[in-house]
Each structure stands twice: as structure tokens, then as C-alpha cells.
Amino acid sequence: MRSIYLLWGHHPSPGRSGLSVSAIVKAGIEIADADGLDATSMRKVAERLGVGTMSLYTHVPGKDDLTALMVDAVYAELYNNDVEAAARVGDWRDAVRFIAERNWDLYARHPWLLDLRSSRLTVGPNISRKYETELRPLDGIGLSDVEMDAALTLILSLVDATARARRSSASTRDDSGMSDAEWWGIVAPVLEQVMTDDSLTVSARVGSAVGAAFDAAQNPAHALAFGLDTILDGIQARIQGRLS
């Protein structure tokens, strides 16, 4: 529960060195952006700030508290505290696409968000405003409150999954030193030679079509766009079914 107080602004006064919760969180985010969440230790944050590790604990009690503060801080980037940001975009479909795009871009800037292990995020002010902002376009379109939450969860889960696929693809490219197009150019001719089993006709055809379209075995951005359109069509059909 101590994280909740910190998140909502109950911060110790800055020390004589000027050390503050905000400075600690900023340093933690910078380390996580560069090296990942696992690399973001209290010791490394202290080193980055040029202070002793123990001095951090008078401001932020531990790594879990720091992580909660970091997550809430980066969520402030999504909509700049404007809870009407998504609702003003256009109709609810346009607003949902805007929400998906903002979250997709946030994962690109802070990929360590994909490494969070708890499904119970500590609720801070920016997480609360994020939820409010993303629910507003769904309010009044014909969904119940529980359905609004489920629809938003489904959309954000799609963004999360495709962002993970994008990160995995980037990691594979970095590790192999080979672009997707280069890899596919080598693999595709070999697959044509070895995949001669008559029972694999559909998978061979579809796999070849995907490879020809994207020069890769997958395209996370396309998967996001296709999945989002499918979810939106499903929500719209659900609403229209109640009106007919």
C-alpha cells in the first residue's frame, strides 16, 4: 500500500543533495529504456544520480515501488492528462484506433512495459486518467459498463500481443544481423524444396502469400490493424444486434 501513497503525491521532502522521488523515477525510466526492467536496480539508479544507494530508500522503499512509479509516470505521456483526448478524435471507432496507436507507440518508446509481471498494477493518478480517457469514447454507444471494460481490455490485449511480436522480431533481427527480408529470401526457396507433403497445401500457400506480402514470416503492424478492424466490427455488430 505504500506505493499508492507515493503515486498520489505523498513524497518525502527532497534531501540536502536535492534527491527527490521525481528524480529517482526519471533515472529509473532512463535505465529501463536503455537496458530493460531487470537491469533497473536501486543500486544502478543511485549510481546514475551520483548518490549512495541507501539514500534512495528514504524516498522510494524498494524496486517494486520504483517500478509502480515508473509505470504511472510513462502513462502520463499517452494523453497529457487530457481525459477528452480520445473522445474528441471522431466517432468511437476512430477514437479506439487513436487509443491503440498511442499505446502501440508507448510500447515502442518504453518496451520494458512488456516485462511487467503482475496483472495488478498499482493504481496511480496517470493510470486512472488513462482508464478514464480510454473508456469515454465507449460510453453511451450501447455497451454495458462491464462490456465497456471488456472491450477496452480486448483492444489493449491486442496492442500488447502485437507489440510483443514487434519486439521479438526486432530482437531476432539484431541477434542474427539479418533483416526479415534477407532471412525470408534465404528460407523461402528452401521451404519450396522441402515442403512437398500433399497434406500441407493450405499452410504452404498461405505461408507463401504472407512471405510475399511482407518479406517476413509475420507483420505485427498488419496484425494489429487487422485485429483492430475485426474487434471494432464485432463491437458494432453487437450493438446493432440490440437495436434491430
Show the helix and strand layout.
Blueprint: H1 2-7, H2 21-35, H3 42-49, H4 53-56, H5 63-79, H6 92-109, H7 125-135, H8 145-176, H9 180-194, H10 201-214, H11 220-243
Helix pairs in contact: 2-3, 2-5, 5-7, 6-8, 8-11, 9-10
What does this structure look like?
The structure is a single chain. With 244 residues, the protein is mainly alpha-helical. It is 67% helix and 0% strand. It has eleven helices and no strands. The protein has helices spanning 2-7, 21-35, 42-49, 53-56, 63-79, 92-109, 125-135, 145-176, 180-194, 201-214, 220-243. Helix 2 (21-35) crosses helix 5 and helix 9 (180-194) packs antiparallel against helix 10 (201-214). The longest helix has 32 residues, at 145-176. The relative contact order is 0.09. The model has no long low-confidence stretch (mean pLDDT 88).
